[in-house]
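Aim 2 progress. For N-formylglutamate amidohydrolase, the working sequence is reproduced below.
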Amino acid sequence: MTFPYTLTEPAGAALPLVVDSPHSGQARAGSLPSALPLAAPPEALLTGWDAYVDELFAHAPAVGGTLLCAEFPRWLVDVNRARDDIDPALVDGAMPFALRPSDKAGRGMGVLRRLALPGVPVYGAPLSPAMAEHLLKTYYDPYHAALAGAMAAHHARFGAVWHLDCHSMKSRGNAMNVDFGSERPDFVLSNRDGATCPEAFIELVGQCLRGFGYQVGVNWPYKGAELVTAYSDPARGRYSLQIEINRALYLDEARFVPHDGFARLRGHLDQLLERVADHIRAEVARGA
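Predicted structure tokens for this construct:
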């Protein structure tokens, strides 16, 4: 069976750390359903790609973490949305479950994306309910099962688990974003205003990044979405933190090619993972 993700186990002694990159996958030749009514040009679809985020966090297994990376593109299925977060206008007919479109879906960015860029539809026609359900069952459900399973296994073994949900962001918000036209900081850390991990953990990560000279925002313009919300429960030792990286730090945003800043950033993120691993070891040792 071919899975729509890669799951890399710890290289040595395991820590209860799960790092996931849900938007770094790309469409491979012959991998998409032939009946998909695509309309957006490839360059528009590419703008939703969290380019090379899987590589930026590839050090996770070396520090004892589990690394989960999507192998499918975000524009096809966005696993960082609720499964029922679908714009009804995108589906021609009734789904086998009730839809609960959020504000994100209304702006074209639901679990099945309607827009690739402002004014640029992903599809030239609505999806059939059968196609929409096929996409969810083929990509969404296995990815969520893998993340939930990895976190549950670590929690059962250690009594706690830490989760880093890793993304990249455009250097400036566009018309589909709440911060349209605004320049963004180097990093945005999100915990749903304290709901998905303690302030001490978000501060630990923030201090580490600021120590490297980066500007760090907290809970704006991103508060954290489905992946940190669905599996976190700080009262029971389940801690999730969303990390957004400004693409300008490492990427030519027009050509989607890494520039000279990539190696520097990768080195700093390696050190961040080491710092997080040290924190987790200390917490596990004291029975957190």
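The helical segments are 42-45, 53-56, 103-106, 129-158, 199-211, 226-231, 261-285. This observation will guide construct design in the next reporting period.
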